[in-house]
Design a protein that fits this description.
Number of helices: 11
Radius of gyration: 20 Å
Shape: globular
């Protein structure tokens, strides 16, 4: 445990060393958030309800997505592909720790910093914009929202690792990662609630793991899912989590057999 805590501490110190890069990253996310926020503010102006959302519910969804996103999708696993390609993975395989634990510790540090900034940004934007936000008061729903959030975080962790493990078989991991994240960006619900899509496309989204990254936790929080829909969502999410975990274990095992540390 002490080893992994030191990894978390070291990762945070790394961010403070390159703080300009990190701050610019957060500025980009805030600008993106403001674009989406004002787009929906303009669309819903003068409408009591549109696509099944009041202006308050939609703006709550948009603002809170800026908190859920870094909690779920903040990651350092993109580095794994480069470690494999360069041969530097060997330096971690000989250390007295699990590589999966190393990756998880790096991710935790990333999420901690990003969430702290996200909360600060939401508070500042709330003070400046004064949107009509929906505040969930049910302790049970808040607890279920947190469980859904953790489930999305674990799902994304394994999904991102699997993309990085392509480095065992190809030197170009960036291209498939970029394409997969463009596809995922659409189906996570980060830019808009997925239920405004056409019925067939929405049904397709429900069968994908991306649905459970951002959209599902936010819908649980907003209280817009029936008990049956929540149960179904958690069951499918658990199946996806188990499936991606199994695929990650298989890919790691077979990848190590193919690993030649050519960079070293």
């Amino acid at each position: 445990m002490h080893t992994y805590l030191q990894i978390i501490k070291g990762t945070i110190e790394e961010y403070t060393t390159y703080r300009v890069s990190f701050i610019l990253w957060r500025v980009r996310l805030v600008v993106q958030l403001l674009v989406v926020y004002f787009m929906w503010w303009a669309i819903l102006a003068g409408h009591q309800e549109l696509f099944g959302y009041t202006q308050g519910a939609m703006l709550t969804y948009v603002l809170f997505s800026s908190f859920v996103r870094p909690f779920v999708m903040g990651t350092r696993t993109q580095e794994v592909g480069e470690l494999i390609r360069s041969g530097n993975l060997s330096n971690y395989l000989v250390r007295p720790m699990r590589f999966l634990g190393f990756c998880a510790s790096r991710d935790i540090a990333d999420k901690l910093l990003n969430v702290i900034f996200a909360v600060s940004e939401i508070i500042v934007l709330y003070v400046l914009l004064r949107p009509q936000l929906f505040i969930q008061t049910s302790a049970v729903v808040i607890l279920l929202s947190f469980v859904a959030l953790v489930m999305g975080m674990v799902l994304f962790f394994y999904f991102s690792l699997l993309i990085s493990y392509l480095g065992f078989w190809t030197p170009d991991v960036w291209a498939p990662r970029f394409l997969s994240f463009v596809f995922a960006e659409f189906f996570t619900g980060a830019l808009f609630p997925l239920d405004i899509l056409s019925a067939p496309l929405y049904l397709v989204s429900q069968s994908l793991p991306f649905y459970y990254f951002i959209y599902f936790p936010l819908k649980v929080y907003l209280g817009q899912l029936s008990s049956m829909a929540m149960l179904q969502g958690f069951l499918i999410g658990i199946v996806w989590t188990a499936g991606l975990w199994a695929l990650e274990r298989i890919a790691w095992s077979r990848g190590l057999r193919a690993y030649t540390a050519e960079g070293k």
